[in-house]
Every structure is written in C-alpha cells, then in structure tokens.
Backbone:
C-alpha cells in the first residue's frame, strides 16, 4: 500500500494493522453479518480466528436486535432470498441509528438486474466501506475500475472503496492505498472474499478512520493468505491453513511481509 | 464427571460413552436436525464421523416426515427464519408423537426477545435435553447458572440440562456430572457447540437414561477435542482434526482421558 | 467403466476425462447450482477446485438470470424450502430455453412424499442427467436398482442415469459404464455426492455426449477420492485432501487409476 507520495504512511499502516489485530484479540467485538449461504460458516470462522464474535441471523425479526448489540455490520448481497431482502434495510437502519460502521459487499451484482437495483439502494444508505471486485464495481459505477474512476466514485458517494483483485486498491477519494499481498489460491476457495470483508468491518469497529481500517484489514488478509499458501497442497488444505495463519499471525509478520506498491 | 458422592458411577460413565459410540458405529441411527445455517454442514459431518445418518431439511412441509423416520431430533434456534419457525413446532410434535428423544439448543437466546419467547415455548414442549451455555441459561432461567440453580431448573422443567463451558455440567435435577474435558480451540470454530449437541441426541436415541446419554456425549466430544488440539496448528486444522478424532477415537481412549471432577 | 463388450471405449473414456478436466481448467465455465444448505459451500469449492465458476443463489427473482449466464445447471432437491421450490421450475425452464445441460439430484426423495412428487415433475422436465443413489432410484422408479431396470428407466425417460454407490453405474439406456473408483470415506463427508454432481454438469457443458460426460466426471471424482483417502486420517482431513486432489490431479493419473469393470 502506498499513500500518494507519502511513504511515511505506509510504515504507519503496517503498524496499525498489527495493532488492530492485537486489539481485536484482546477485546473481542461482536460483528453481525448478513451474508450468502456459502459464506456463512467461513465468515464466522474467520471472525473467530481473528478474535471477534460473529452472529449471522438473516431473519428480519431478529437481525436488527443482533445488529444493535454489535460493533459493526456486514451486508453481503449473495444468495439474496426473501428473508435477506427483508432484513437488510432494517439492519442498515439499525447500524445508522447506533452510529455503527457497516460494510457493503455487492456480490455478483453484475449478474442480476434486481440485485443491482438493491445494491444501489444500499449504497444510498451510506456504507462506511464498499468492498467489491472489478466486475462488481463496473456494474455499480457504470465505469471501468481504473484508479481515477474508483476515487471519483468514492468521493461522489462518500464511501471508502476497497476494490480487491491481484492488487487491492483502497481509497476514500483523497488517499489511495495499493496492496499487493495475497495468493491465487484465495480465488479457489468459495467466499474467501466475502469472509475477508468481515475483517474490514471488525477493524472499522476499532478504528474510526475507515480508509486506514479497510487497508489494514486487507493487508492482514493478504499476508495470512501468503502464509497459508506456503503450507497448503491445494485449495482444500489452504482454507484450513488460512484460518490457522490468521489466528497465529503476529504484528511483526505484517510489518515484515506487507507489500505496499 | 462425578455423580454426587458416587465415584463408582464415574467409571460406569466412561464405559458407557465408549459403548454408545461403538453402538452408533455398528448400527447407524438417523438423526434429524433443524439447525442454524452456519452449523448445518459441520453438524452433518460430526454425525457422519460418529456413525450416524443426518438429515437437515428445515421446510415445514418435509421436516415432520424426516423426523418421523429418525431416532432423535435436534432443535437449534440459530438463524431462526420463517421456514425454521414454521417447521420447529410440527417437528417437535412429531417427535413427541413418536416418543423420540429431542434436544433443544437455544443459541443466542439472550440476544433477541423474539427468540427467547420461542425458546420458552419450545421448553414447554418438554425436550429430553436442554443444551445451552451460561448466557443462554441465564436468559432462559432468569438466574445465574450456578449448580443449584441449574439443578432446580432441571427439576422444575423435567429436563436434563447440559450446560457447557470450560467445565460442562449435566444434571437431571437429582444427579450431577461435571466434565472437564475439551480445549479452548473448540470455541474458535463456529458451531462446534451446535454440532456437538447432535451427538447428545444420537446417544439419547441409543440409551434411555438421558442424563447418562448427555454426559457420555459431552465426554466423547471433549476428549475428541483434546486429541484434535494436540494435532492442530490453529482453528482451521482443528476442525478437520476434530472430525478425524471423533471418527477414530476408541472406547479405551475415553476411559483413559475422561476428566470427571 | 466398460461399455458393453467394447473395451476400446474404456480407454477412450479415460482419455476423455483428462481432456475435459484440462478443458475446464483452461476455460472456466459458469455453473449455476440450486442445492441444499449443507452442500452449498462444498459444491462451490469442488467447482472452484476443478476450474469452474459456481453461483448458488436460490432466489426465484434471481436464479433464472444466473442460470441464463451459465453453461449448465444443477438442481438438487435437498433442504427444499419455499424459495428453492419457487426457483427450481423457472431455472429449469431457463436451462431448457437456453439449451443448457442440466442435472437433477433427487436427494432423500425416498424420505418425503412431497419431495417425490416434485422430483417426478422435475424429471418430466427432461434433465440431461439424473444422478441418484440406490434408495433414491427405487423411490423414483418404483423398482429395484438393477442394471436392467436402470437402463429401462433411462430409455423411458430419455435421460442419462448416473447411479452412484460402491460401483457407479452410468447408462443412457443403450450404453452402460461401471466405475469402481472411490473410497468409503466419501460417504462420511456430508454432501460429497451432491457436490460431485456439479462436476457432471460442468463436464456436460463441455461435451455434448452426456453419457460420456457423466462417466468421465464420476471417474474423476472417484480417483480424486482415492488419492485423498491415501493422505487422510479421517473424514475431516479427507474433505480438504479431496479438494486438493481434484485441483492437482493430472490426466495421466486418471488414465492410470481408472477402474472400469
């Protein structure tokens, strides 16, 4: 990651990532996650490995109560059934009422017109962070996902954008971070991206600067992925090794392995 | 585990746990489980590793038929959506009509007033075993989870209570077992507790004394967790190692490793 | 596998399986899967390990759009809730309109009269492949699952039947393949069969002869299972090892290890 011509901040970000991880391990925060069916178990396991306490209910009768007792909210639009559709707006409203950070992950928004419409309504509710890949960004923004377009989108919507890919780009419209950590095996495990989004929410619960929190979380995920890939024989053992790596990674590992470009 | 001043029974319980596990491996029983979305796959895998045959449908049109052909039923109140809410009372009614043992796991009942109301209605349906943690017990009972309060609750509701924590407490109101087996990594894998509940149901299907069946199941789970923790590098590899351990654990391992306090 | 007295074709099938796997790895195909809750993550992970791109939404508002952009469709009748029931017929209609291959997996159809009725309606929609076990076949066909009965059923319904068990039988009513690969640990991991079904769909998307595609897929699954079993200590490590094996298996491994009887 690099701030625009501000290499001093790169060093600060490495330290911050380790501090946030240590802080989460020391004082677990509750994170409520409305996410797709394939991501639920992995997301919960990722949060537990990082020291947080997940809850996952998608029922409109219950999700607001679970959100209200949490420190942050994740809204992931995958497997968007009737219960999820009904509970998402009330959970977002609860997060806003309680001044909680919340993160939007518009999974596969390019594949379904209905989902795109709902994603835009969610975006109008001012998420703290929008986490998406290139195809999802293009569908939402109606523009190619170049750095300028992403920064412009972030400014226009008042949101931190965390655009993930071979190199992650995080921006609040003014500052930009580029993170080159990670491993290709992460794309061969379902819901790795969705699960990783939950760490953005957990870090945003600990640190008010959402741009820094998002970048620190992606740094932590990417480095854990690299540690895991070195031990794995394929995507099956990678998933277990990733949770182990996130559980065991030390702040000094993050400082050492960060690749901010 | 210790019966109150009856150390002879401790030895019997160790033997019973091994016998029930051997019996389940020899003659698989069907267990129907209505559980939360994050627990479904792990629960099914735990039952398969132990030798049972799981089914998981939550549809109100189908869950009673699946329950009727099973040897026991598990009701877990996590991710309590409309389908689950509709199918739970009919499935409980089926279990009662067929005289099947059933186990109630009131997950996160302290977090949602609606769920607490439903949990109390479920409790009025006389589960064979109530499996809960301290926070869930407190919400249900309106009392601190001390041994006397738990025994009193068990007598009042005519239910075996299996209160899990660093030391598990199992009681039918008259007899009490305390089980110190287990490992802290079990709390870092989502739905380990929920999945473990299903073994209580499977053992209750084999053994009419639900107090003994519940204690034997928690002993088996805890010892499998210890065996797994010795092989794991973190929560990711722990989950796989736990299923392996449960699949491979011998009755003699249970006799040897049981810590009844 | 053996064609009836046509051992030449056995050799061709081994080669075909490797070619289809190589083709899928080179040009990923999208596969849409409506499947049961316990199978969703493993199915997605199996497809990703094989080189395909899964999507899993069960919402009737979205599943047809996801199907329309896919190369094949899987319909699995497990955990058949209201959303799944509503989305299945429209997704099948989309597959037919787009001339996509689709595979029906009538899980536990023997356990629920409602599910049996729906499975027969699905079958009337002319799936490309019906994948089932012996109990499911018996319920659907009202007959014992002997080779003649299966061939007769395949001819009558104009469907390739892939009947899985200790030895898999694949037939289009004229040709028959028998595959003896696999390992008993595969039956101790929930949804291994359901997840494997998705590879039949992926191969059918690449290869117009659905009989050959189905047999090649079961061969690939069975051999990956054997490779995994040699590394696993039980069902927990088996699941991860299986995904690794499928990710790493070479066409030459398939040629070498195929057991066509």
Residues:
């Amino acid at each position: 990651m690099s701030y625009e011509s501000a290499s001093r901040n790169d060093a600060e970000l490495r330290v911050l990532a380790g501090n946030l991880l240590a802080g989460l391990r020391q004082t677990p925060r509750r994170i409520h996650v409305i996410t797709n069916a394939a991501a639920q178990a992995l997301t919960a396991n990722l949060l537990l490995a990082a020291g947080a306490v997940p809850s996952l209910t998608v029922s409109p009768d219950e999700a607001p109560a679970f959100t209200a007792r949490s420190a942050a909210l994740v809204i992931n639009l995958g497997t968007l059934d009737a219960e999820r559709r009904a509970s998402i707006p009330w959970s977002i409203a609860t997060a806003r009422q309680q001044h909680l950070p919340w993160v939007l992950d518009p999974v596969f928004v390019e594949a379904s017109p209905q989902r795109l419409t709902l994603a835009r309504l969610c975006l109008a509710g001012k998420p703290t962070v929008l986490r998406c890949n290139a195809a999802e960004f293009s569908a939402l923004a109606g523009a190619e996902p170049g750095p300028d377009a992403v920064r412009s989108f972030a400014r226009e919507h008042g949101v931190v954008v965390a655009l993930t890919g071979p190199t992650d780009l995080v921006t609040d419209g003014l500052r930009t971070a580029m993170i080159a950590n990670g491993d290709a095996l992460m794309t061969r495990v379902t819901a790795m991206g969705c699960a990783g989004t939950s760490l953005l929410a957990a870090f945003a619960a600990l640190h008010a600067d959402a741009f820094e929190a998002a970048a620190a979380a992606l740094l932590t995920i990417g480095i854990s992925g690299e540690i895991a890939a070195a031990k794995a024989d394929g995507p099956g053992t990678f998933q277990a090794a990733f949770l182990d790596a996130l559980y065991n990674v030390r702040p000094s590992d993050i400082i050492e392995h960060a690749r901010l470009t």
